[in-house]
Every structure is written in C-alpha cells, then in structure tokens.
Please model this.
Amino acid sequence: GCTLTTTLTDDIVVVIISAYTNEQAAPINETAISTVSDSTGLQWKRRSKTIKGEAVHGYTMLLDVWYAHAPVALSADTITATVLNPGGATYLTIAAVAINGADLRNPFDQNASLPAASAIGASGGSTNHTVSGISTNSMYTVEIAALFTTTGGSGTPAVDSGFTIIENEWG
Model:
C-alpha cells in the first residue's frame, strides 16, 4: 500500500496500480486487483484497467487506475489494493495523487483517447517511453504520467518542458 496526507477538502484521489508476475508461464490475471480500500473509508471506483505485454522479458503488466472523492483532508491515509488470484508471484506498485478543484461528479476528461497507456520493451541504455495521440476536451485538465517497469532501473527520468517530476523512486 501507500500513505497519503492532504491539506484540503474535496480532493479527488487518483491511484495508479502496476502489477506483474515474475512467471512468464503464468502472466498476471486481468482480474488480479479486485478492490482498493483505505483507512479513511473512501468509496473507490475503477477508472480503467489495461493489460500490456512487455516485449523484452515476456512479462505482462496490469495497469489499474482507481479514484475516490475525499470530502475531508486526509491524514496518513493508508491506501491498499487487494490482489486475488494473480497467476503467479506478484509485484505491486501503488502511486497516489490528490487533486483539488476537480469536478467531483465527473473528474475525468471525456475525450475518447483517454486514458492512454503504452508498453515499451527495452534492455539497457536509454529508451524514450512515449504515449501518443492524447487529446483533451477541456483546457482545465491534469495529466498524470507514470512509468512502471518489470526490471527496475536507475538514473533520472527526463520530462518535457512544462512537466514536473513529483517523485522518482530510482534516483
């Protein structure tokens, strides 16, 4: 799980979960993440679920996005993803962000190109990880990008002008 503290009320909390198994013969099950819960008791909804193959090492990764409305400020709220029947030994990463000022009834841009995900197979060296074809209907849109890997990594990720790295677990 992960822990999140916020200072404002009426945030939309978005959780991005990455899960994969280390067994090529038993790839991650599409229904592996059954629920998201937290210590505050927020009502979680699934935004999207994407299965992506990873070309070099043959692993399959599940990217699952959930969200909840936090009517009160959160204090060390522990967020947990429940994994059922994953298909093999499972590696799970959870990233959470709270956004204030979003439409509480309809927090996501309704453009058909969203959400977007990409799988890139790479083995060492530098590789650009690009998700293309993203469009938004609203000019008041927050874009969240997350890079998850089945093999670990080192170094400092680079971002385009106008974007900011909030957290880097590699560096």
Q: What stands out?
A: The beta strands are 2-4, 11-21, 33-38, 45-53, 60-70, 77-83, 90-100. The two ends are 21 Å apart (CA to CA). Residues 17 and 94 are 5 Å apart (CA to CA).
